[in-house]
Amino acid sequence: MGTVSESGVVDAVNKELFLGGKWTPASEGRTFAVTDPATGEVLCEVADATAADGMVALDAAVSAQESWAQCPPRERGEILRRSYEALMARQEELALLMTLEMGKPLAEARGEIAYAAEFFRWFAEEAVRIDGGYAVAPNGSGRFLVTKQPVGPSLLITPWNFPMAMGTRKIGPAVAAGCTMIVKPAAQTPLSMLALARILADAGLPDGVLSVLTTSDAGGVMEPLIRDGRARKLSFTGSTGVGRRLLEQCADKVLRTSMELGGNAPFLVFDDADLDDAVEGAMAAKMRNIGEACTAANRFYVQRGIADEFSRRLTERMSSLPIGRGTEDGVVVGPLIDEAAVDKVSALVADAAQRGADVLTGGATVDGPGNFYQPTVLTGVPTDARMADEEIFGPVAPITVFDTEEEALAAANDTEYGLVGYVYTSDVKRALRVSERLETGMVGLNQGVVSNPAAPFGGIKQSGLGREGGTVGIDEFLETKYVAVSL
Ligand code: NAP
User: Is the domain 6-262+464-486 a CATH 3.40.605.10 member?
Assistant: First the structure.
C-alpha cells in the first residue's frame, strides 16, 4: 500500500483467499461484493470460499501445527512485534480501508488500528512469559511438573463492527501460544483482515499458520470445520444467537471455546456523580463506533436529582454531532452497517415511543444514500420497551429515572447479558459496592471506555465465555499439561 487514496487502498488489498500461505481464488471461482455503507456503492469483489476451500485451510493448519509449536516463543513474539510496527506504519491507509468497508469515521478507524496493533505488541511480550511449575507432591515422594502447550489448530470467527481489532485480539494470543489458525472475517468487512494477513506473512509468519476464508456462506463453510474434530478450538466474537448455535456444534467434538457475545450495558449515574464527567463518559460509551459496539451503553439509569440536567446536557451534545460519510472531515456519526440495522433501530425507537417514551432529539433516519440514523435521546423509557432487552447497536440513548441504589441495580441486572456496566458516582463506598454487585464481566467506574489490550475483556451470563487480552488472554490458546514424576 503506497497511496492514501480511496481506490488506492482498496486496489492494494489482495482479494483472494489466503490458504496455507498462498493467495488462491475460491475453488468455484465465485466472488461476492463488499459495499460502502455510506454510499451503497460496491467497493470491490472478494473471493467467496466454499466448504472445500475450508478443508484446504484446515489441512494446512493441521499439518503446520507441530512445527509451529516448536518455533521458539521469542521468534513468535518477534513476528507479532514486526506486525505491530507494520500496522502502525500503515495506520493511515488501513484506517481509510476500514472506514470504506465499515463506515466508522476516520478518526475512530485510526484509533482502532492503534488498538488492534496494541494486541500484537502485548502478545509479543506475553509469548515469552508462558509459565509452568515444579512442585513437591504432598506425600513427598513424587514431583509435579506442569507445563503449557498450544491448544492446536484454532478457528477464529470475527464480526464486522471492529474489523481489525477483533482479529488481532484472537490472532495475537494464538500466534503467541503457538497455535495455527483459520480466520473467517465478517462478510461485510473482509478487506481489513485480508490486509492483515499480508502484514503477518510479510512479518515472517510461516506458511500454514494462518489462513483467511472470506465467504458469503459462513455456516456452510465453518460448520464442517467445527465438526471435523481436527481443529481443537473455536474463538468467536459476534451475536449471542449465533454463538449459541456454534456452542452446540462445538459440543460434538468437545472443542475448547471462547465466546465474546452480545451486550446490553447499563449506564448508572448517581446524584453524587460529577455531571461533566458523566456526560462525557455517556457520549463515549454510547457513540463510540456509532453505537455499534458490544460495550455500547444500551440503557441509561439516572438518579432523579440530576436526571433532568443530565438529559438536557446529553441531548445538547447528541443533537450537535456532525453526521456524514466517515471519510469527511469532522464527521462524528457515520452510517450504520446496512439497511437492516437502520430498520432495527427505527423499530426499537418506534416501540419505545409507542410505549410512552419522549424523543428529546433525533428519532429518525437521514435521507440517503447510505444507512444513516440520527443521534437520538429518549426519556421516560419504560422497562418493558424492547430496547431494554435488545442490543440497539445504533446511536440511541434511552434514559430511565431511578430513586434508590437498590432499584438501579435490580434494573441493571435484569438482562440475560453481562458484558459491561458503567457507574458514575463520587462516593467511594458506593462505587465499590455497585461495581461488585453488577452482574457483568467488566465495569467502567467513572469511565466510559473499558477496552484495553492489557486488561481481561469478556462477559458473564449470555455475553460469553473466556477472556481476551490481559495476562489471561493467552491461556485461551494454551492447555495445561501435568507430568507426574517419580523420583
Ligand atoms: P454475527 O451475525 O453473530 O456474526 C459474527 C460472525 O459470525 C461473522 O463473521 C458472521 O459471518 C459469522 N457467522 C454468522 N452465522 C454463522 C454461522 N452459522 N456459522 C459460523 N459463523 C457465522 O454478529 P455481527 O452482527 O457480525 O456482530 C455484532 C454482534 O457481535 C453484536 O451482538 C455484538 O455485541 C457482538 N460483539 C461482541 C463483542 C465482544 O467482545 N463481546 C465484540 C464485538 C461484537 P457473516 O458476516 O458472513 O454473517
Answer: yes
pLDDT in tens, 425-473: 999 999 999 999 999 999 999 999 999 999 999 999 999 999 999 999 9
Ligand 1 pocket: which of 104, 157, 217 to mutate (most atoms within 8 A of CB) = 157
Pocket flag, ligand 1, residue 335 (CB < 6 Å): no
Adjacency order of strands within the sheet including 396-402: 358-361, 376-379, 396-402, 297-303, 265-269, 420-424, 442-445
239 lines ligand 1 (CB under 6 A): yes
Q: At what angle do helices 51-70 and 218-228 cross, to 10 degrees?
A: 50
Question: Which pLDDT value is given to residue 3?
Answer: 54
Query: Which of the four pLDDT bands, split at 50, 70 and 90, describes residue 4?
Result: confident
Do the bridges between strand 265-269 and strand 142-150 make them parallel or antiparallel, or are there none, so unpaired? Answer: unpaired
Q: Where in the chain is the domain with CATH 3.40.309.10?
A: 265-416+420-451
Detail the DSSP E strand segments found in 48-140.
133-136
- By CB neighbour count within 10 A (0-12 exposed, 13-18 middle, 19+ buried), where does 482 fall? exposed
pLDDT tens-digit readout, 179-225:
999 999 999 999 999 999 999 999 999 999 999 999 999 999 999 99
CA distance 297 to 422: 8
Nearest CA to ligand 1 atom 22: 218
* DSSP-derived pairing of the beta strands 464-465 and 256-260: antiparallel
pTM of the model: 0.98
Output the residue whose Cα is nearest ligand 1's atom 18: 219
The CB of 187 under 6 Å from ligand 1? The reply is yes
Q: Where do you find CATH 3.40.605.10 in the chain?
A: 6-262+464-486
What percentage of the chain reaches a pLDDT higher than 90? 99
Q: Is the pLDDT of residue 160 over 60?
A: yes
Question: Do residues 89 and 139 make contact, with C-beta atoms less than 8 angstroms apart?
Answer: no
Q: Residue 45, Cβ neighbours under 10 Å: how many?
A: 12
The residue whose CA is least distant from atom 6 of ligand 1 is: 159
Task: Report CA torsion sign: 348, 353, 358, 359.
Answer: positive
CATH architecture of 265-416+420-451: 3-Layer(aba) Sandwich (3.40)
Q: What's the rounded Cα separation, in Å, for the pair 283 and 449? A: 10
Q: How far apart are CA 298 and CA 376, in angstroms?
A: 12
Average pLDDT score over residue span 18-34? 97
Separation CA 286–CA 297 (nearest Å): 5
Residue 182's pLDDT is 99
Q: How confident is the model at residue 119 (pLDDT cuts 50, 70, 90)?
A: very high
User: Which residue is catalytic, options 260, 292, 391, 468?
Assistant: 260
**What pLDDT score does 63 carry?**
98
